[in-house]
Amino acid sequence: MYLLLIVFYLLIILAYLAFDNFSLNSINSVEKNISKEPINNHTIIEFLTQYIQRVEKDYNIPPKGLSTSRYNVTGSIINDTHAAMSYQFPLVKGKVSNIKIDLKPQSVSALVDSFGLSSPYVSEIEGGINYAIPKADTDEFNQFQRELSAGNWIIEDGELNVDYKNLVRIHQSFCSEISNHIVIELKDFKSDTYFNRVQAVLNFVQHIPYGQPLFNKNNFNFFGLALPPESFILNYSDCDSKSIFFASILSNLISHDNIVLVRCITAEPHMMVAVKGLNIFTGQHVECDGNDFLLLETTTPCVIGEKHWENFRLKKIIKLAN
Q: Which has more confidence, 13 or 248?
C-alpha cells in the first residue's frame, strides 16, 4: 500500500515538472517573439511594405551622400504583426523628446504604393527626368494620365511634375501621431507656441540623417524621393523627401495657408519649405500672394532665421492651401 502511494506521488511530481518545463519553454518562446531588440532598418521596411501591389522598390541600394546623426530612428518587428519604432529628437530649448510609434504593414504598404512611375514615356537621367507627353485626346495620352494619377504625378503648363501637394495631403494622417506627440510635449514643457511648433517639427525632420534615396527597380522610377514613412523607417532622406515629411507633420499643427513648398536652385536643384507668420526678419524670405514666407532648410540642423543661401534662385512655389 505504501509502495503504491510512493509511486503515485512520484508520478504527480514528474507530471508537475513536465508541465512546468513546458510552461517555461512557452514563456521563453513568447518572450522571443516579442523581443524589442533593435534590428536593421532595411529588414523593417521590407516587412512593412510586404503588401505593396502597384510599385516595385529596391531598398538595398545604399543612398547617396549618407550623413550621420546622434539622433536615429530604430525599431523592432513584434510578433510579425507590426513594427515598434522609436526616435529621440531635440524638441525646443534643450529638451529632448522620445517618440514611439507602432506601424502596420497594411497601412505602410498602401502609402508606399501611392508614388512611383513606370511608363515608356518617362525615364530618369543624370540630374533630371527625360519625358515625352503623348498627343492629347489619344488612347496613349489617356493611359499616360492614368499612370501619372496612380503615381502622384501631374502635367502642369506642359511640364511633368511630382504632385507634392497631394503627397502632403495623403501623408497627413500618417504624420498625425507625430504632430500630436509634439503638441503634448510642448504643452507639458509649457512651450506650446506657434514658433515652437514650427521649430520642433523642423528639429524632428532635420536630425534624421541625410541621404538621397535610390529605390528604382525594374521599370519603376522614384526619382530620388522617399515618402514620409520611408524617411522615418529607413532613417534617412534628402531635401524634397524631408520637405514633404516636414509639411505633412506641420500641416496638422498650423494652417495650410501658412505653408508652401519651394523648388529652387542654390548650389544645385533644391527643395525647402517656407512658413508665414513667424515674425522673424533675419534669414531669407520669399513672397507668395502678397505674403512674406520665411525659408526653412529641412535637410540639416539649423535654427529658424539663421540660414541664408547664396546664389538662391526661385523656380516654383507650391501652395498647400486650395
A: 248
Q: Where are the domains of the chain?
A: 41-254
Separation CA 194–CA 192 (nearest Å): 7
Measured CA to CA in angstroms, residue 42 lies from 62, 229, 245 at distances of 10, 13, 19
Counting residues of the chain whose pLDDT is more than 90, the rounded percentage is 80
- Output the nine-digit C-alpha cell for 164: 507634392
- Quote the CA–CA distance of 112 and 68 in Å, as a whole number: 25
Angle between helices 105-112 and 164-188 (to 10 degrees): 140
Cα separation, 215 vs 58, whole angstroms: 5
- DSSP for 84-125 reads EEEEEEE-STT-EEEEEEEE-HHHHHHHHTTS-B--TTEEEE
pLDDT by residue (tens digit) across 105-152?
A: 999 999 999 999 999 999 888 777 889 999 999 999 999 999 999 999
State the pTM of this model: 0.87
Q: Are 143 and 150 in contact (CB under 8 A)?
A: no
Q: Report the distance separating Cα 152 and Cα 163, nearest Å.
A: 5
